[in-house]
Amino acid sequence: MIMHEAGGPQVLRPETVTVGEPGPGQVRLKQTAIGVNFHDIYVRSGLYQTLTLPGIPGLEAAGVVEAVGEGVTAFAAGDRVAYTSGNYGAYADQRLIDAGRLVRLPDDIDDVLVAGMMVRGLTARILLTDVFPVREGSVILVQAAAGGVGQLLCQWARHLGATVIGTVGSQDKAERARRHGCHHVILYREQNVVDTVKQLTDGRGVDVAYDSVGKDTFYDSLACLAPRGHLVNFGQSSGPVEPLAMPRLAAGSFTVVRPMLGHYTADPADRDAAADAFFQALRDGILTPDDPVRYALQDVGQAHDDMEARRTHGAVVLMP
């Protein structure tokens, strides 16, 4: 699915290309499932101008190695693998990719589940350990707690001993958030988020707020922080955040960070450690994500539409 220009979902069009043989250090991958992320929507719309056009969007997928190029010794034909790739190109049924991007999939880990969750799973692990070390006794706020990363954050943080407060937009999502680890759920359309957080924390606020919504929630998240609290803005599904006046941080000696997964997984050893922790959390039942929502590859435009309209929850995958 190739885009020649930025715009609405209709700019994603199917084209037939010749994949060819893998070059040195590459493998040819037959993809079995492809993840869809809000990052892809930002790229398609032109908000992120990080894909050279014409180009193939998509950051993550799972599949089976079909052939290996010269110098590749870590993988062989038939190996099951998954990846996240800063070079895009995942919206395809076959592709060439650098072998160094691949993570071997354990036999007991489902490829469809992981294909739509590699970015989310690695993101959750990085946010809870590297960006801010959540531990026993931490009090956290997760905006969009029923979303793809939100569900993982809530479950994993609860396992680590944190008190988890989540925000959602409906009763259905509230039930989903509770099932996935939230101690307290705030219906943001009916309740004032800042006031409710203060009530739940006896006026103190939270140690860390995880915010992937951006424009609509950023400053409420900031107001929910306890003194010396941390605001982690890792997405902007509602749009980019208005510029922050630095003196506002002085109100509680707050810190704000805008982490990007690629900076935390650039070292393959760090990436593999995060992936291993994610796979183990799935294996141990710490994370029990909902089944991914599936679309045919050619229906990726509908998938984008449904995600933007909040008609999906959890992982979204394309099936080649």
TrEMBL record:
Residues 7-318 form the Enoyl reductase (ER) domain. Residues 1-24 are annotated as: Disordered. Keywords: NADP, Oxidoreductase. Pfam families: ADH_N, ADH_zinc_N. InterPro entries: ADH-like_C, ADH-like_N, ER, GroES-like_sf, NAD(P)-bd_dom_sf, QOR-like. PANTHER family: QUINONE OXIDOREDUCTASE PIG3-RELATED (PTHR48106), QUINONE OXIDOREDUCTASE-RELATED (PTHR48106:SF13). This is Quinone oxidoreductase. It comes from Alloalcanivorax venustensis ISO4. The lineage of its organism: Bacteria, Pseudomonadati, Pseudomonadota, Gammaproteobacteria, Oceanospirillales.
